[in-house]
Amino acid sequence: MSTDFSQDFFALFGLSPGFHLVPLALESAYHDLQARVHPDKFAHLPDADKRVSMQWATRINEAYRTLKNPLSRAQYFLHLNGVDTAADSNTTMPAEFLMEQMEWREAVDEARIAEDAGELEKLLLRLRHQHADVIGEIERDLDHSRDYQAAAAAVRRLMFVEKLEHDLLDAIESLES
Amino acid sequence: MALLQIAEPGMSTAPHQHRLAVGIDLGTTNSLVATVRNGIAVCINDEEGRALLPSIVHYRADGITDIGWAAHGAQSRDPRNTIVSVKRFMGRGLKDVTHVESMPYDFVDAEGMVRLRTAQGVKSPVEISADILKVLRGRAEASLGGELTGAVITVPAYFDDAQRQATKDAATLAGINVLRLLNEPTAAAIAYGLDNSAEGVYAVFDLGGGTFDISILRLSRGVFEVLATNGNAALGGDDFDHRLFCWVLDNAEIAPPAAHDARRLLLKSRYAKEHLSANTDATINTKLDSGERVELTITRDTFVDITRNLVAKTLAPTRKALRDAGLEASDVKGVVMVGGATRMPHIQRAVGEFFGQEPLNNLDPDKVVALGAAIQANVLAGNRRADDEWLLLDVIPLSLGLETMGGLTEKIIVRNSTIPIAKAQEFTTYKDGQTAMAFHVVQGERELVSDCRSLARFELRGIPPMVAGAARIRVTFQVDADGLLSVAAREMSSGVEASVTVKPSYGLSDDEIAGMLRSSIDHASDDMQARALREHQVEAGRLIEATEAALAEDGNLLDEAERATIVGMLAGLRRLTAGNDAKALATAVAQANQATTEFAARRMNQSVRCAFAGQKLDEIKV
Fold this sequence. Notes:
Distance between the termini of chain B: 48 Å
CATH topology of the largest domain in chain A: Monooxygenase
Number of helices of chain A: 7
CATH architecture of the domain at 21-185 and 369-387 in chain B: 2-Layer Sandwich
Helix content of chain B: 25-40%
Radius of gyration of chain B: 26 Å
Shape of chain A: globular
Structural class of chain A: mainly alpha
Number of domains of chain A: 2
Order of helices and strands of chain A: HHHHHHH
Radius of gyration of chain A: 20 Å
CATH superfamily of the domain at 21-185 and 369-387 in chain B: ATPase, nucleotide binding domain
Oligomer: heterodimer
Largest interface: A-B, 47 and 56 residues
CATH architecture of the largest domain in chain A: Up-down Bundle
Number of strands of chain B: 27
Structural class of chain B: alpha+beta
């Protein structure tokens, strides 16, 4: 079957490849494409059309999800440029960063045990600042200096930050329920 | 059914033929059917002019089945054979159902899904729901004057895979072609959004008889995008009734009531609850079969007090949905209230306080879901008008995953992902020479498999023997636009064919469904053969019509030989459609579908490629 998935996700949405993008441009392109391929448009047509529609709608959802999230967008862009960030490589993390992460973990654990929702919210706010800083760094590395190795290192740090953010949200959520 | 009209070759069949399509709200307490007439969504009423059909089925000992209003009075007279709120049992085992102890039914705890022993034998919730759906189908076909092309059936957004599949099977059993399963809050958003030309972020707060959903949507330029959904598939107005019923038992100083009396008190509790929505107190005054008399007055304040934690149970999911959407309550432009239970003033107040604004109550909370479903059904059936361009993007409510070592869940698809979606993950063998691998598919948010819902277990066999860790087994989860899952597993490294695809089942196998279908058709003195032939004729007609339109539009995508093959195929289809050989027609339809797949793929490729042609990169209109 010749469903043509050869275009990369940037080309699919008519965007130039890079880290920086205008969220509204991505969203608008996404809606335009889904309007063409979504299964709801083919529900009254024969099975062949339905099948192809589902494959495309699935593909376009995947592309949108990948590009919308900065972490997966950076990973995908690096992947297109031959750099794989998915592998486990904690060993290459700077000791200073790992130390900092441990301190973060301790702070979160303490607040969780003390059931201190206010402290957890404060930590979340601080973590989000750090998150934004790392994103800025990735954008500089990818779009300006084109230092893909440095970007890959920053992406790995971002993975740590997001994991921590996720755990923090879980902790806040479990206090609420 | 009217005979299919066959056009001359080269002439398209009636281009603007209106297909009969309906939206069905299969509710816990009431069910409705709606359609689009002259561009406006309307509920289809029964002969007495009533839109609501109580979701009650009475299996009488004399073999007659009463449904809806006809069964209403039997609730306290014959509670064991009068099934209410069957939606709570859909795709559920006995251990999943709350308040079982106060229910008058004779439960049979079957594998996967509970069954009920009635005067007419053991019934599955799927069959009982199908009986309700048949009445709605009959009502619609009588009113619209023909056989339905299909229906959109609504389900609570928080329904899991088993509950969705059970609902779809019930519709199949009722002889309904399901165009789509649509989430109830999304249906409400369509009806509200199109009616009010709404733009921005909206929340739909849907508290029905037995289920609670909260959905956060963004409406922009004709796109309805669900950002997040959450809820509780076992929380609704029924629980408020039950709380009040417990209060009555605590305060009435009577002996534990028998089934008839319990049902009577539960009904009285419900009326009292409804009364309290407009009044500050309500009286429950009734004489029981036991000879005892109950006379109690409850104030609204007391009712609010005893149901406080039920209200809180709606706010926790609301908070989660907002968080998953990455939004604050203040980002929400409007809160649409859906479901009869939102009439309770303290629900209105709690929602108003949470969002810091008055909830929107300008739609009939009982009808809005069916109306939205009707609008969607009209579009899906192909009755869309040129100016009717809107798009619906919905999500999966609960994460899907696999069991890994130590009874832990590995999430493959996370909740609130836009559907359709496919995701793959690779696994490997842990023993040398291992030739089979067992998979356990689960749904839910918890880390432990035992806290999630088990959807399916299957095995991949025929893995070529290798050292541990060398095999690469790729497991793919695909969720379609109905929110239904299929799972495939395949060994990748060897090239040896070892693959399996499963649809999760919830206690009714395909064979059982087929058996029920056969027996229900026998009863209806319908002819299985005739029905099959009719279905294939409809499918063939659809194929001919669509393919001719495609040839006219995009014929240039085929070379002469390809075109000739397809044209020949259509001629064959036409010939067989006029005959009465169902089997030959089915084969021809399958072949034609196969033969046109490549054409369909090329057309879609072209459509996607054309999307941004002629536009400069990054300068897409925003």
